[in-house]
Amino acid sequence: MAALEGTLDDLSFVELIAFLESGRRTGVIELQGTSPGIVALHGGRLTLALSENGPTLQQVFIGSGLTTSDGWWEAATAAQSSSSLTDAVIGAGSEPDHVERVLREQTIGAVFELLLPSRDHFVFTPGATHPLGHRFVFDAGEVIAEAEDRVAAWKMIAESIPSTALVMAPARHLPGESVTINETDWTVLALLDGHRSIADIIRELGMSAFAVCSVLHQLRTAKIVEPL
């Protein structure tokens, strides 16, 4: 089957995914332009989405604690010979449920980036596969719905976090006698040293820009952090 190509000006990202989902297509979409990225599908369902504006897959796996730097390269080597990256990481000891949660979050975060209106060029190569494999697949409609919810929420977040180049630090004085920080918030807060930019934190944690900025927006609203 020949490759399908065009621009997102002719066929929106949502329409493109819906078309491939309805035909239960397997392959990889490559996007080039203002928001480069890839989307892998298996039987019309999403297995992975990556945006060049977000973390790499390596950063996602290491930053989320699924593996170490050495473990990543061992898994990548194993994937070249027989197994997929996902199977190799799980075979090395990662919990399948944890891997699935991380990949789902990464896919939603990348689709959020790719949803922004553009005239980017796309090519869908049928039958192409990604080294990640297709052990976990995600409903395209559900992923897009969650990504669209984030687009709506982003308008509010962007008012307090206008750029990922922003550098933030813990506030010198707490708004009260004590505050409660959950695990996810602490993971981000612990990296605010007054030197790292938000973009640096995104790369280090392997989290999406939305996830990190959402946490920082909440912390800034609560007056726990402040921009420098």
Word description of this protein:
With 228 residues, the protein is of the alpha+beta class. The chain has 2 domains: 4-152, no CATH class; 161-227. It contains 9 helices and 7 strands. The strands form 2 sheets. It has a 5-stranded antiparallel sheet with strand order 1-5-2-3-4. It has a two-stranded antiparallel sheet with strand order 6-7. The relative contact order is 0.17.
Ordered list of secondary-structure elements with their pairings:
Blueprint: E1 4-7, H1 13-22, E2 27-32, E3 37-42, E4 45-51, H2 57-63, H3 69-81, H4 85-91, H5 96-114, E5 121-126, H6 140-160, E6 168-170, H7 183-189, H8 198-205, H9 209-221, E7 225-227
Antiparallel strand pairs: 1-5, 2-3, 2-5, 3-4, 6-7
